[in-house]
Design a protein that fits this description.
The complex is a heterodimer of chains A (305) and B (370). Chain A is mainly α and 305 residues long. Chain A has one domain: MetI-like fold (Orthogonal Bundle). Chain A has a two-stranded antiparallel sheet with strand order 1-2. In chain A, a hairpin with a 5-residue loop joins strand 1 and strand 2. Chain B has two domains: 226 residues, P-loop containing nucleotide triphosphate hydrolases (Rossmann fold); 124 residues, RNA polymerase II/Efflux pump adaptor protein, barrel-sandwich hybrid domain (OB fold (Dihydrolipoamide Acetyltransferase, E2P), Beta Barrel). Helices cover 22% and strands 34% of the residues of chain B. Chain B is elongated and about 75 Å long. The N terminus of chain B is likely disordered. Classes of the chains: A mainly alpha (305), B alpha+beta (370). At the A-B interface, helix 8 and helix 9 of A face strand 6 of B.
């Protein structure tokens, strides 16, 4: 009995582990290993050499294994105001963009979820359609719209609504436009997939019990859509914090987002240890929202089952 | 409204020439109906007959294409669902999944802006009536089907509606719980004095609950009456066939006297004598319906010259308190008869292939021409 059981267990376990081994291997190879390398570099000292940092672990002459952890990089991040400021700026841009995406995306998702099935597919297509064009191309198109002699300013000038062009490109405003525009589908799609599952009879029940439509929304639709809101908010917020392309192309040179700082440290200053330290701090700060996101996602999966 | 009858004379719920079309499909077709205060009125019909649409028209989820609806003399035309003095118990119960039993039941009262203490008192009372007090902190997914049904009922009743609409209220319950809940519903209804309109496809449920039944077919009300009237005196062939099981024969009127009629049916060896008069032209084509439980089985030929047939028992279904016999007549027609199993003597049983005589009383057949 027991050997057969063991045999069965071993077979079952090996089958299961084969299935989960591949993604696990993927994560170890492409996430954990790079992360550990970055972590290691963040504790080393910058050198003018190749690679441009000192080794952490060294054999000294007296057969001593010396491990030197330089915390100076992290200390530097907290003393130079550049990092703190751009970090706070990034968080603020990401938070406000997420809020704007939510305010724009929620009505869109609700309208799609309540449209007739034929229209619903068309509307979903329209949400996904921008992905068929290169992201960079779309950012440049926005610059074309927003710049001083761009479409919007020319139109306003022609209509004599303004006397001089409004400076829009290379401002925070342009960064918000770019981020909200680019990330809106990531808010709409998870919200839609949540709202579309709502049972229409719940709203009828709310109306039947005396709740006018706006109250039924607040008491029934909104609380039931919170998992979708959280999913959408995380999908916008997390990448927006580290966003590099949009602020580089559309933002001002005075207000740097943390992604831009990170890339400057790597490529302009060639200070890999400080850049690595920045990356590690960003990761730790984003860990909080990621954990919340995962918790809601697993709760929603459990609820759907 | 000028042409209303004086107050007190009017029925509580008035449905006047109401129709509802969805595109080309006519879900409810020119229905007129009145329901009195304190009644349990059942709308009975097969699925797709328009009974649920009629209920949703009353709740305000659909607007009638024609006609008007009045409750207590008030025209409902411009009253949105959230202002109607009506509550509905949904077939799916539609309990709010993110709220506890207590919050679900309190929801309707919160919309009336009652003081918190009043809400708590009334929620406590109604949960006591439906015996759900021990479960007030549970969420709907932690409840059984029967418990959810009671919460849905409490949530609708706590608003003290003038009229409660119930859409297949017992549909999701198993047989034992159903029977129990039917009587519980009647109890609660009498305790609170609410008017019920119940939609169901289950005739047994309608029979048990209803003071009156409205039978619907293809969007129309075919007959309205007490359960006894509907069963014993079906107005049309459809009603006779739909309610309970029945043996239908085609026949021709051969004798029409004030106190009896005689009908000749091709499938029956003797004529059918009916002791209540009907009004039909001589020689008219008629249908005759005889309920299985009104047919008696004997081994010897019955004495009267009318109302009998002869055949062979084809099948016997033993159901405990009664047995159902499928008898093939000499004409080839199969007829259903049920007998109470009042005797345990084996020699009195009719087994398969026994030749038998069937007979019935002159008061039993129902005759119609529709």
């Amino acid at each position: 009995m027991r050997p057969r059981l063991l045999e069965w267990l071993r077979q079952g376990a090996s089958g299961r582990s084969a299935v989960s081994a591949l993604p696990l291997l993927w994560l170890v190879l492409f996430f954990l290993a790079p992360f550990l390398i970055v972590l290691k570099i963040s504790f080393s000292e910058a050198r003018l050499a190749m690679p441009p940092y000192a080794a952490l672990v060294e054999w000294t002459h007296e057969r001593v294994l010396a491990i030197q952890l330089h915390l100076a990089n992290y200390h530097f991040l907290f003393t130079d105001p550049l990092y703190g400021n751009s970090f706070l700026y990034s968080l603020r841009v990401a938070a406000l963009s997420t809020l704007a995406c939510l305010l724009l995306g929620y009505p869109m998702a609700l309208a799609i979820a309540r449209a007739s099935p034929a229209r619903r597919n068309l509307l979903l297509m329209l949400v996904i359609l921008p992905f068929w064009t290169s992201f960079l191309l779309r950012v440049y198109a926005w610059i074309g719209l927003l710049k001083d002699d761009g479409v919007i300013n020319n139109l306003l000038l022609a209509l004599h609504l303004i006397d001089a062009p409004i400076a829009m490109v290379n401002t925070s405003f342009a960064v918000y436009i770019g981020i909200v525009y680019s990330y809106l589908p990531f808010m709409v799609l998870p919200l839609y997939s949540n709202l579309e599952k709502h049972d229409a009879s719940l709203l009828e029940a709310a109306a039947d019990l005396g709740a006018p439509p706006w109250k039924a929304f607040l008491r029934v639709t909104w609380p039931l859509s919170i998992p979708g809101v959280v999913a959408g908010a995380m999908l916008v917020f997390i990448p927006a914090v580290g966003e590099f392309v949009i602020p580089s192309l559309m933002g001002s040179a005075n207000q740097l987002m943390i992604g831009r700082v990170l890339s400057d440290e790597f490529f302009e200053n060639r200070d890999w240890p400080v850049a690595s330290a920045v990356a590690i701090v960003v990761l730790i700060v984003l860990l909080g929202p990621i954990v919340i996101f995962q918790r809601y996602r697993s709760r929603e999966l459990a609820g759907a089952a | 409204m000028a042409n209303d009858p004086p107050a007190g004379a009017q029925a509580y719920v008035q449905i006047e020439n109401v129709s509802k079309r969805f595109g080309d499909f006519i879900a409810v077709s020119n229905v007129s109906l009145t329901v009195e205060r304190g009644e349990i009125f059942c709308l009975l019909g097969a699925s797709g007959c328009g009974k649920t649409t009629l209920l949703r028209l009353l709740a305000g989820f659909e607007t009638p294409s024609a006609g008007r609806l009045l409750i207590d003399g008030q025209d409902l035309a411009d009253v949105p669902p959230y202002r109607r003095p009506v509550n509905m118990m949904f077939q799916s119960y539609a309990l709010f999944p993110h709220m506890s039993v207590e919050r679900n039941v309190a929801f309707g009262l919160e919309q009336e802006h009652l003081p918190a203490r009043e809400i708590a008192r009334r929620v406590g009372e109604i949960l006591e009536i439906v015996r759900m007090t021990p479960y007030l902190a549970r969420k709907p997914h932690q409840l059984s089907g029967g418990q959810r049904q009671r919460v849905a009922l409490a949530r609708a009743l706590v608003k003290r509606p003038k009229l409660l609409l119930l859409d297949e209220p017992l549909g999701a319950l198993d047989r034992k719980l159903r029977e129990h809940t039917q009587f519980e519903l009647i109890n609660i209804q009498q305790q609170l004095g609410v008017t019920f309109i119940v939609v169901t496809h289950d005739q047994e449920e309608a029979m048990t609950l209803a003071t009156r039944i409205g039978v619907m077919n293809h969007g129309e009300i075919v007959q309205v009456g007490t359960p006894r009237q509907i069963y014993e005196f079906p107005a049309t062939r459809f009603v006779a066939d739909f309610i309970g099981s029945v043996n239908l024969f085609e026949g021709r009127l051969v004798e029409d006297e004030p106190d009896y009629v005689r009908i000749q049916c091709a499938d029956l060896p003797a004529s059918v004598l009916v002791d209540h008069g009907i009004s039909a032209p001589p020689d008219a084509a008629l249908w005759v319906a005889v309920r299985p439980e009104k047919i008696g089985l004997t081994r010897e030929q019955p004495a009267p010259a009318d109302n009998w047939a002869h055949g062979v028992v084809r099948e016997v279904a033993y159901l405990g308190e009664l047995s159902v016999f499928l008898v093939r007549l000499d004409s080839g027609r199969e007829v259903r008869a049920t007998l109470a199993n009042s005797s345990r003597k084996p020699e009195e049983r009719f087994v398969r292939d026994t030749p038998v005589y069937l007979s019935w009383d002159a008061s039993s057949p129902v005759v119609g021409s529709g």
